[in-house]
Amino acid sequence: MRAEQKQMAEQMNTAALSFSEVCFSHEQHQVLNNISFSIQKGERVALAGSNGSGKSTLAKLANGLFLADKGEISVFGQKLARHNIHELRAKIGYLFASPDNQFFGLTVEDDIAFGLENLCLPREEIKSRVMHYAELFQLLSLLERHPGTLSGGQKQRAALAAVMAMEPELIILDEATSMLDASFRTSFLDQLYKAAERNKQTIITISHDTQDLLRADRLLLLSEGTIIADGKPEQLMLDAELLERCRLQAPYALELCKELRQQGIPIGMHANVQEVLQELWALQSSSLHSATKTAEPFYHQR
């Protein structure tokens, strides 16, 4: 037991975020019950579960918007408490599920610059970051627009640009792609993760979209205020019972594998489309090779 406690203490000191036996109640309702996990610096972690499972509450506890009833939360090795909430919150970028909750300025440019001005950065640095992240998230043509006139997807991009421009060490995204169309979502996440990797940032993504979850290094699944699974997304997504408990739709690749197997194609079960394509190509190549090997050469034919 002492060895386990020592290991947990070491993880909390080196982790970007750690929860140790955290409990939280709201209006006499237990929302989170004995939650423990650690997220290491630079990890990309996805958080999923059915509505009411405690995902957003967990995120707000991590950002100091709520304080735990019991247990300990550490951010980059420092225990989160009332006296240091503002200091630790400066290291965290938080994107609310509704981007309207994060707009303050009269224009998109004002909004992206708002957080940077609070950091007291030089004017040249503020302008440079505003333009860089506006270009990264395809907002250059929208900089003079009032946030209220934007579409849902544009609002999410503008809110994320404002968060990313401050270059926090830990980024928490609550349904950050829910208003984006499928054609833009992939490139959006590509840009997000490239920027995070370049800045050595840790990302926690809350999402119901299985394609978003599969982009993470690690997946935490919540149900009724407890963590019921913690592992590689592509492995957890193969568990039909877990998906049912968390009200998650099976990935397209998994459904495709089931249909192919029903058609007699001996393929494994995969949650990633690329893995399905690779195995199909291997099966096709093997089949062609066998056919060529068993065929009688034309010069033997009479």
What does this structure look like?
With 302 residues, the chain is α/β, with parallel strands linked by helices. It has 12 helices and 10 strands. It has helices at residues 2-14, 55-62, 85-89, 108-118, 123-136, 152-165, 182-198, 210-214, 233-236, 240-245, 252-262, 273-294, and strands at 15-26, 29-40, 44-49, 70-75, 78-79, 92-95, 170-174, 202-206, 218-223, 226-231. The strands form 2 sheets. The protein has a 6-stranded mixed β-sheet with strand order 6-7-8-3-9-10, sandwiched between helices. Strands 2-1-4-5 form a 4-stranded antiparallel β-sheet, with helices on both faces. A hairpin with a 2-residue loop joins strand 9 and strand 10 (226-231). It starts with a helix and ends in an 8-residue tail after the last helix.
Task: Output mean pLDDT.
Answer: 85
Name the helicity range.
Answer: 40-55%
Q: Low-confidence stretches at least 5 residues in length (pLDDT < 50)?
A: none
Number of strands: 10
Q: How many helices in DSSP terms?
A: 12
Radius of gyration using CA atoms only: 23 Å
Beta-strand fraction estimate: 15-25%
Based on helices, strands and strand pairing, what is the structural class? alpha/beta
Shape: globular
| Neighbour order of strands in the largest sheet | 6-7-8-3-9-10
What pattern of helices and strands is seen along the backbone? Answer: HEEEHEEHEHHHEHEHEEHHHH
Largest sheet, in brief, is:
6 strands, mixed
Distance between the termini: 79 Å
